[in-house]
Amino acid sequence: MTKIRIGVLFGGRSGEHEVSLMSSRSVLSVLDPQKYEITEIGITHSGEWWSGKQTWQKFQEGSFEGLYRVLLIPEPGKTVLYKREKDNLEPLVELDVIFPVLHGTFGEDGTLQGFFEMADIAYVGAGVLGSSVGMDKGLFKDVMRSNNIPVVDWIIASRKDAEKNIDALMHDTEALGTYPFFIKPANLGSSVGISKCKNHSDLLEGIMQACRFDRRILIERGVENAREIEVSVLGNEFPRASLPGEIKPSDEFYSYKAKYIDDRSELIIPAPLPKETIAEIQDIAIRTYKAIDCAGMARVDFLVNGATNQLFVNEVNTIPGFTKISMYPKLWEASGLSYAALVDELVNLAFERKAERNRSERKYSE
């Protein structure tokens, strides 16, 4: 059997670089070498692409010794990864599919997906549209509201807005309702730059914190006694949803520290919810997925009002955390799909999506 030549891409130019390394390690560990010819490709914080023996290990150690610069040319029919030495390009390996295990900007926001589309190569996950809408929290909420999918009240502001008139921005925020408010970079994940603001001074600090990481920030009101529920979705045109899981964060909310540093957060799978609520959450998750034209995979995150049980879609992650203890693969495992089988299915979905793109005619004649 001919092996599938797969390039696993990790690292990247975002605040989630280290999270990407954690996720990609797990993906690499389950790719069957009898089925796949694996090429590890690491992207540095400054955007350089490197490959070679033990690329992941070298990135983890912060050393590029023994690696070489590589590049992919965004031209149809040229799905070759080239080794770059000074001004010379040497063909290294032809790739069949790319698995981008990249979180955040320049990996999950549609920019890289556009590059893959230009190169006309199969790749795992959402396309340009699904990735970009899923990444921008403000635009995502606009799409949800237009599809009658429940979300909490919010406002979007720019870094320039905050710099020009912080008092006006804080006034508009407090007009949303009562404290607490959550302040988030509009285009980042893994809870990087997120603050829970309980009072006026917290609000000022939270706005400044979020503006460090993005030129656009999202400000939303908190949900009373919120329960955090997550659902994994898998598929292209006909997606399916996993059982939901619940997160009991060790922090006041599911912060970066609670996710990746301490090990005291609790994941409850399946979430203790009535059957009819589970069915409703799964239905809304699939509607959310389709509304942004997602493909391959996504994790849809919900907030449930602890007092009224009202559901709100919080956000969608088109390249969710992928460590073996991350919610996305664990939910599928609880739903009967192993981690290794999940990765295989994602690769198959990438080829399916590519074949569907190829059906579109590129020339017009009457």
Molecular structure report:
- The structure is a single chain.
- This protein is α+β, with helices and mostly antiparallel strands and 366 residues long.
- It folds into three domains: 4-123, Rossmann fold (3-Layer(aba) Sandwich); 153-221, ATP-grasp fold, A domain (Dna Ligase, domain 1, 2-Layer Sandwich); 224-357, D-amino Acid Aminotransferase, Chain A, domain 1, CATH 3.30.470.
- 34% of the residues lie in helices and 26% in strands.
- The protein contains twelve helices and 18 strands.
- The strands form three sheets. It has an eight-stranded mixed β-sheet with strand order 6-5-4-3-2-1-7-8, sandwiched between helices. Strands 13, 14, 15, 16, 17 and 18 form a six-stranded antiparallel β-sheet that branches. The protein has a four-stranded antiparallel β-sheet with strand order 9-12-10-11, sandwiched between helices.
- β13 (227-235) and β14 (240-241) form a beta hairpin.
- The chain starts with a strand and ends in an 8-residue tail after the last helix.
Q: Give the number of helices.
A: 12
How many domain modules? 3
The biggest sheet, with number of strands, parallel, antiparallel or mixed sense and barrel status, is: 8 strands, mixed
**Strand arrangement, major sheet:** 6-5-4-3-2-1-7-8
Helix and strand pattern: EHEEHEEEEHEHHEHHEEHEEEEHEHEEHH
Would you tell me which CATH topology of the largest domain applies?
Answer: D-amino Acid Aminotransferase, Chain A, domain 1
Silhouette: globular
- CATH H level, superfamily name of the largest domain: ATP-grasp fold, B domain
Number of strands: 18
Enumerate the spans where pLDDT stays under 50 for 5 or more consecutive residues. Answer: none
The CATH architecture assignment of the largest domain turns out to be 2-Layer Sandwich
Quote the average pLDDT: 91
**Distance N to C terminus:** 43 Å
Which percent range describes the beta-strand content?
25-35%
Q: Which class of the largest domain in CATH terms?
A: Alpha Beta
Q: Please give the radius of gyration in angstroms.
A: 21 Å
Helix content, binned percent: 25-40%
Helix-strand category? alpha+beta
